[in-house]
Specification:
This protein is an alpha+beta fold and 396 residues long. The chain has two domains: 236 residues, Double-stranded beta-helix (4-Layer Sandwich), CATH 3.60.130; 133 residues, no CATH class. 17% of the residues lie in helices and 26% in strands. The strands form five sheets. Strands 1, 2, 3, 4, 5, 6, 8, 19 and 21 form a nine-stranded mixed sheet that branches. The chain has a four-stranded antiparallel sheet with strand order 13-12-16-17. The protein binds fe (ii) ion (FE2).
Length: 396
């Protein structure tokens, strides 16, 4: 049977014109048992469409690991470094990840307690939910009516020492059934998005870049972002914005001298736009919670200075200023009509281009709702590439 692709089902709120290239359901092949030729096709499809969905797949953790590794054969450790970094109990990721003992690169994530599962006698899972992470919370009355939030928009990446994984694979074992919920943005807009319970929401990094006005495109292609050392420990005392798209600048981050030992050489500074070498497109890829400083290159020779931001370049170290710049650039892309909330069924396997999309868990539910997913991503063998000089010239 040949590999066939179909558009993914978009929610009614989505602007279909912005999802022409985004997302495909793939049929005709088992993703855990691909020939080299089939894998090459799946790899190309992933970089062209960013999210691939396989339905009704039986997939072992071994097969999932093998598939994930095929995208970057030299990679081997889990995206956050075999969980050693995240064993640090101060990290905000600590409670959310459980390793499958047989295949430590595959994590069990979800909600509720599962017993005698893949070598784990008992695993207490906790769906990350906004209370305790966002600065403000949905009131209990509104939560009872089904209102919820995006939890935290992110790229799967340690952002310190390890390179961001190229792909993340997410396999749904148990999906809680229940009523749909309504994401409220609560940022002074009346934006809302109806979503399935326990959805994973995605936005395209290409769209995030392409909808920017020219002066912000110019800034994006000329900029690099420096992440904080041990960013998930650093941000842990701080609280997030109500959209889940970054941190409120209240000065609550852990002081750098109170962090676990860190080295300058392991700090990550990445281009704001990451080059997709299959499509030659730029993906706006910034993990807004971890940003610390912004470096802006001056305009290239011959570029118009009319309306240009930081035409002579800049090094911005004021945290609030850095975050405000990113919020301005990223918020348009999480508009309700640009979000793809995946409606999970059991045995769905989703592959997403982790260097091409931002994603977030969504929703609020109680401990008796069991959700069990297998997640795998591997710290990449190299850092992402930024725009070429030609891209900079085109957009600056
Ligand atoms: Fe993630």
């Amino acid at each position: 049977m040949a590999i066939e692709t179909f558009p993914i089902p978009l929610p009614p709120a989505a602007d279909a014109s912005k999802f022409k290239d985004f997302g495909r359901e793939v049929r005709g092949v088992h993703p855990g048992r691909l020939t080299d030729k089939e894998f090459k096709e799946i790899e190309r499809l992933l970089y062209e469409h960013d999210v691939l969905l396989f339905r009704n797949i039986d997939l072992s953790p071994e097969e999932q690991y093998k598939l994930t590794k095929a995208f970057d054969p030299e990679s081997d450790t889990y995206g956050h470094g075999n969980n050693k970094t995240e064993k640090n109990s101060k990290s905000i990721l600590h409670p959310d990840l459980k390793t499958i003992p047989r295949v430590p690169q595959v994590q069990l994530i979800g909600n509720g307690t599962v017993y005698d599962y893949e070598g784990l006698a008992e695993a207490k899972l906790r769906h990350p939910q906004h209370p305790g992470f966002h600065k403000t919370e949905i009131s209990p009355e509104d939560a009872a009516k089904g209102y919820t939030r995006f939890y935290r928009w992110h790229i799967d990446a340690a952002l310190y020492n390890f390179s961001p994984p190229k792909v993340t694979t997410l396999y749904a074992v148990k999906v809680p059934r229940g009523e749909r919920q309504i994401v409220r943005y609560d940022d002074g807009t009346s934006d809302e998005l109806e979503v399935p319970l326990g959805t994973t929401a995605f936005v395209s990094g290409v769209t995030m870049f392409e909808i920017l006005p020219p002066e912000l495109k110019s800034l994006a292609v000329r900029s690099k972002v420096r992440y904080a050392p041990h960013p998930y420990v650093w941000m842990a005392p701080a609280r997030a914005l109500s959209t889940g798209l970054g941190i409120v600048s209240d000065g609550l981050e852990m002081p750098l001298n109170a962090l676990p030992e860190w080295e300058e050489s392991k700090i990550k500074t990445f281009p704001v736009c990451w080059l997709n070498s299959v499509t030659d497109k730029l993906h706006f890829q910034v993990h807004p919670c971890g940003v610390q400083e912004l470096f802006v290159d001056p305009l290239p020779e011959g570029a118009s200075r009319d309306g240009a931001l930081y035409p002579d370049g800049a090094h911005i170290t004021d945290l609030k200023e850095v975050r405000d710049i990113f919020y301005k650039m990223q918020r348009p892309a999480i508009d309700p009509k640009l979000v793809y909330p995946h409606d999970w069924s059991e045995k769905d396997l989703v592959l997403f281009h982790n260097r091409g999309v931002l994603h977030t868990v969504v929703g609020t539910f109680s401990a008796d709702r069991i959700r069990a997913f297998h997640q795998c991503n591997l710290a990449a063998s190299s850092d992402p590439l930024g725009p070429t000089p030609e891209h900079v010239k085109r957009f600056a």
